[in-house]
Amino acid sequence: MAKIVVDWRGGGDFKTVQEAVMAAPEHSDERTVIEIRKGIYEEKIIVPVSRNAISFIGESWEGTVLVSSDYANMIGADGAKIGNDNSASTFVYADDFHAERLTFSNQAGLYKGQAVALAVSGDRAVFRDVCIRGNQDTLYTPGQGRQYYENCFIEGTVDFIFGSATAVFEQCELHSIRRHNGYITAASTTKEQLYGYVFLNCRLTGAAPEHTVCLGRPWKPYAKVAFIDSWMERHIRPEGWDNWRDPERENTASFAEYGSKGPGARLVGRAPWAKRLGKEEAEGIKSAALQGSDGWDPVMSLGRHLITER
To answer: Residue 284 contacts by C-beta under 8 Å, 6 or more apart in sequence?
Structure first.
């Protein structure tokens, strides 16, 4: 296992994270651990497809911060808007990416509109003890890869977890910051995918007003989202879900809950087209969502061993 140290003060192998990424071997069977020392790294970071099996290991959420402030309506060098796909502070295109103990942030501001903090399209991505901060469109998960988030803090306003990947969020806090008419998820799961976003034992907190935030709305017709054994504050709307002004999506989207708790979890007022899972259904989703054809288990992946070795 190779190791590269990043320190903006000059005490490591490189001063920027991007330099370290490009120094990692291409298409490697061996993991490269990039240790990022305490500091604010104001740079746009791209982990290309060729740099697979990379780990970003920071010192703490507060101490190691990867940040930029691009936003979708920002004018680029060509005189045109850069668009949401190009707004991310950090892009991860490679497979088998892993990150721990750091923050991914976009500081474009509340009134700049769409501005992605982290975009992940690679397969078998693992994030543990990570903070992802932004406003609208904070975390973008395009493609159909599998992603696992454990003990993470993710904040935003509108559609702040969005995309088509299959992603499991376990023991995470999803924090809706101050704004009316918020949406936590905007899944674009394809018809062929069995699972979309799965939230296990998560906490939904918020500074948003009471009854102003929906659990999700279907960006695409076959969006799939399930909240299992999660706790919800009063900012969650009684109806829970929104059809994105398209009643036809009520027939194709799969929005479900099991074991919801807290003042925002009164299922009596939920949208009638949303589903209440049974215990066996919920257990089946928990065990199968990320397996795929290779039987991937993120809990037993290399990322688990890295933190215990440090």
So the answer is: none
Burial of 29 (0-12, 13-18, 19+ CB in 10 A): exposed
Q: Which residue shows structure tokens 């299992």? A: 228
Cα-trace Rg, the chain: 19
User: What are 22's two structure tokens?
Assistant: 């490009």
pTM score, whole prediction: 0.96
Tokens of 107: 């500081």
Residue whose pair of structure tokens reads 């305490």 in the numeric block: 38
Neighbours of 193 (CB within 10 A): 14
133-174 pLDDT per residue, tens: 999 999 999 999 999 999 999 999 999 999 999 999 999 999
Closest alpha carbon to 202 in 265, 289, 145, 143: 265
Burial of 303 (0-12, 13-18, 19+ CB in 10 A): buried
CA–CA separation, 211 and 65 (whole Å): 32
**Residues taking part in catalysis:** 159
Task: Concatenate the DSSP letters of all residues of 254-300 into one string.
Answer: EEEEES-BSTT--GGGS-TTSEEPPHHHHHHHHHHTTTTTTT--GGG
Cα–Cα distance measured from residue 136 to residue 157, given in angstroms and rounded to the nearest whole number: 5
CB 53 within 8 A of CB 25: no
The two three-digit tokens of residue 307, written as one number: 């933190």
